[in-house]
């Protein structure tokens, strides 16, 4: 026998305020992104007429996007960031997997010592100056590897993947061993196909981290052609002259306010992540939950 609970008036009032608060919170979250997009396509006359604050433009222009892509600085910075993100994420997942899989086996000799060392690196580090000296001494300055190798493995992500592997049924691997599969065959043919949720989750973590990283570009890049998009964007924001950062004549962009060009650059920098994220979202929650059941 099933029972149907009827909502009282107070329940409807509570539901109304919950939905209202969630709606307002969602609008407050989306408004900055909306404002950036609107400012990037608003003509200068309307920007000046409205005192620099436009909610709904009467006219639309793509001049800012035309100028930033006509400049060689933005395409080069995007190409650097794309290479760092793609190559870096692949290397991150590869090395993290090769470390996490053996550490998920309790019979591994010295396993606890290695885990203690990994946790230790989450609490303590050598500092920025020793890190810079190491990167410089290895000849990685002005190379995309300077943005990849120093952060090749995240201890937090490594522990999440290790826990995920521990939650996989051991019977599957034992059956693979009985069929003659070695450790590498078991990993690539059995374990990794079952680990798409955690791979997608950590791939998103690593990828977004590479795409948004700018501190490494400031530290290790002196060649402007090797600076990632976030560093170029940061330089545009703090620089008094946008044309100097874009390496174009100031007279060519005098009909556009600097803020419009900066907003267009922000949109260009965030659009790729916004496009990729929906395809990985279905794996995100599942990967995080399954990777955090055990300590």
UniProtKB/TrEMBL annotation:
Any Pfam family the entry gives: BPD_transp_1
GO cellular component, one term: plasma membrane
Keywords carried by this UniProt record: Cell membrane, Membrane, Transmembrane, Transmembrane helix, Transport
Family matches, as PROSITE patterns: ABC_TM1
Limits of the ABC transmembrane type-1 domain: 78-280
Compartments in which it is found: Cell membrane
Keyword Transmembrane helix included in the entry's annotation: yes
GO biological process entries: transmembrane transport
Family: Belongs to the binding-protein-dependent transport system permease family.
Record-linked PANTHER family: ABC TRANSPORTER PERMEASE PROTEIN MG189-RELATED-RELATED (PTHR43744), POLYGALACTURONAN_RHAMNOGALACTURONAN TRANSPORT SYSTEM PERMEASE PROTEIN YTCP (PTHR43744:SF9)
Protein name: ABC transporter permease
Organism: Paenibacillus flagellatus
